[in-house]
Amino acid sequence: MKGDFGMAKIIGGITTSHIPAVGNAISDGVTQEPYWKRFFDGYGPVKDWLEDKSPDLIVIVYNDHGLNFFLDKMPTFAIGCADQYANADEGWGLKPTSPFRGDAAFSWHVAESLIHQDFDMCTCQEMLVDHGFVNPMRVLFGDHESWPIKAIPLAVNTVQHPIPSARRCYELGKALKRAIDSYPENLRVVVAGTGGMSHQLQGERAGMINIDYDLECIDSVINNPDWLASQSATEIIEQAGTEGIETIMWLVMRGALGDDVTCLHKHYHAPISNTGAGVLLLESE
Amino acid sequence: MVWQEHEYEAIPGSYVFDGKRAHSAYGLNKLFYSFNSADCRAEFDRDPSAYCEKFGLTAEQKRLVVEQDFLGVLRSGANIYFMAKYSIPRGVTVQDTGAAFQGITGDEFREKLLEKREGLEARLEREGGFWNG
Lengths: 285, 133
What we know:
Chain A is of the alpha/beta class. Chain A has 10 helices and 10 strands.
C-alpha cells in the first residue's frame, strides 16, 4: 500500500476470560461493586499498555457458543475474512454492540499463509461474533460506537468433540506468527487468547474451579507452554472442567509470541460467575 | 453401528459433548439454537409442546423440555451453551441450572463458588508475581 513501509509485527499477547457475566457487569455498571472490583481492576495495567502502544489490530482467539456456528457445520479453526463483523442476539435478548472493523486483506493473507502451512482454516466472509469475542473487546477497550482498533475473529471449536488438541493450538499460534510477520504493511498487532480458566457449567460436577491447576496453566503459558500443550483433552477436562478446556486457546496466543516472552502483568481471580479468571500481558523477547 | 468409547466418559458428573451426543440430540440442540431469534422464543412460549414437534424431538425429550427438567435435558444430549438459550430467557441462569444438576438451590450453588474466594490473595502472594491491587 502506498505510503506504508515495513511489515506487520506482533507487539504483544493478552489472555482474558470471555464469559457472559463480564459483559453483563459492564452493561449493568457494576464493575466497581465488591464482587467485581478486584477482577476488573486487574485489567488496569493491560488497558494502560494498550493505551500507550495503541496497536492497529487485534486477533481475538475465541470459541463461538452457538451464534455463528450451529452443529450442522462445525469448523475446527475458522477465521473472519471480512471488513466488518456484527454482534447479534444470542438468545438472551441483549442489545448487540456496534459492529467491529475488520481488515479483509489482512485476514485473507493470514488465511492463505495458514493454509499453506497446513492449517486448513475455514474462511468466513460473514461471521457473527458472540460474547466470546465481544466481551474481550469490551473489557479491554470499553464500549464504542466506532471501535478504536481493527479486530479479527479466529474461532476454535472447543464446543463439540473431537476438538483440536492443546498441541495443535500451540502450533497454530506459531503458524499465525509466521503469517502475521509476513504481511507487508506496517501494522502493530496484538493477539488475545480468550476463555477459561477452570469451570464446568454442566452436569453434577458443575461449579468446580481448580485454582491450583489454573495457576499451573498460567505459569505454563508464560514459561513452559509444552506442559499444557502436552495434555490431552481428557486430562485437561479432568482438571479444568468440561468448559475449562477453552484454556487451550491461550496456547494460540502463546505460540504467536515466539519462544521467549516477558510477562508484564499477571492477574488471577476466582470466582467470577462460575470460573477462575486469568489475565496475562506478554511481550516477545 | 458402533460408537467408540472415550476416556472422558469416565469423568464423574460430566457429559462431554461429542459426536454421539451431537448426533442423537441434533433436533433438541437445533430447537435451542432457534432461540437466537426472538420470534422463535415467543412461538415456543405460546405452545411449547407444538414447537417441540417441529424439531422432531422424541416424546421423552419433549417432556423434559416442557417440564424444564434440566438434568434430564442435559443427559438427553443437550449442549450446555445451547441449553442456556433455553434456560436464561425463562429466568433460569446458568448457575441455576448448575444448581438444578446437583439438586441444590441457586443460592447454595453460588455460596459454594464463593468459598473458593477465601484465602485467594494469600495463595497468590505465595505464588509470587501476581497483581494484587
